[in-house]
Design goal:
Strand 3, helix 3 and strand 4 form a beta-alpha-beta unit. Helix 6 packs across helix 7 and helix 9 packs antiparallel against helix 10. It contains ten helices and nine strands. It has about 280 residues and is α/β, with parallel strands linked by helices. The strands form two sheets. The protein has a six-stranded parallel sheet, sandwiched between helices. Strands 7-8-9 form a three-stranded antiparallel sheet, with helices on one face. Helix content is about 35%, strand content about 20%.
Length: about 280
């Protein structure tokens, strides 16, 4: 497995490869990330994983400085998973001068997580577009856990006519249902025991909607109340159209219920997609 730190070297790899699948990450890899690598291996001759903690997508007071950086352990995992190359540029390599050109995502980027993390998706789409231009993959694989993110990236790729197939990987979960996340490591023992409640509330909403309930606002309110009662600070619990992310209507067929909430100091997100 090659560890590549420069744009020139990753472009040289591109010229020598027939087909590349790309998995962008910020490192601190867990089994969920490795499952994306496995998906990528089924789509291409060479799998490239990037490890870069992107300052542009962190807001004021967020956890950029304390975000876990576990590069050597990440490389060991990727080597075992059959990754061909790790692209690990430093900030100067990726942003040799202050970034003045940005991708401006549409209004949906200011809803859900975007309503609570100003400029987050502007930073995400800008770095992903830049990584796409550098790596020039045929396929890019993202986790469905960040459902709003993959939806926005898929739309960006389509509207900017990027010749890249976007593939979503199912959310990896612990045995108790908690979605795998790099930020789970911030949880105390007591918080970790409480954390699966967010998934259980999403599962209840999914079951209720599948069984015929269309009082979506009530279902959302019930879930928020349950989380509040157990010490969570809730950003949102919402049912949305799974294709457009518009607010769900009773005649929608493909839905997703999404949630974001803080448990102590740790912000967790999750979603469940389903048909009715």
């Amino acid at each position: 497995m090659k560890i590549i730190e420069t744009i020139a070297e990753i472009r040289a790899l591109r010229r020598s490869a027939q087909k590349i699948a790309f998995v962008p990450t910020m490192g601190n890899l867990h089994q969920g990330h490795l499952s994306l690598v496995e998906i990528a291996r089924r789509h291409a001759d060479i799998v490239v994983v990037s490890i870069f903690v992107n300052r542009l997508q962190f807001g004021q007071g967020e956890d950029f400085d304390r975000y876990p950086r576990t590069f050597q352990a990440d490389c060991d995992k990727l080597r075992a998973a059959g990754c061909a190359a790790v692209f690990a540029p430093d900030e100067h390599e990726l942003y040799p001068q202050p970034q003045q050109y940005f991708v401006e995502p549409p209004a949906i980027a200011n809803e859900l997580c975007g309503a609570h993390r100003a400029g987050h998706f502007r930073g995400v789409t800008t770095v992903v577009a830049k990584l796409f231009n550098i790596v020039q993959p045929d396929v890019a694989v993202f986790g469905n856990k960040d459902f709003q993110q993959i939806t926005i990236i898929r739309q960006m790729t389509e509207q900017l006519a990027m010749p890249i197939e976007i593939v979503g990987g199912e959310t990896g979960r612990a045995a108790d249902g908690l979605a795998l996340s790099s930020r789970n490591g911030y949880l105390s023992e007591a918080e970790r025991a409480e954390a699966p409640r967010i998934y259980r509330n999403l599962a209840r909403i999914k079951t209720a909607a599948e069984s015929g309930r269309r009082d979506f606002a009530t279902l959302e309110t019930e879930a928020v109340a349950d989380l509040h009662a157990h010490g969570w600070q809730v950003d949102y619990v919402e049912l949305r159209n799974a294709t457009t992310l518009a607010r769900a209507h009773a005649d929608d067929k493909r839905l997703v219920v999404l949630a974001a909430a803080k448990l102590g100091k740790t912000r967790l997100i999750d979603n469940l997609e389903f048909n009715i």
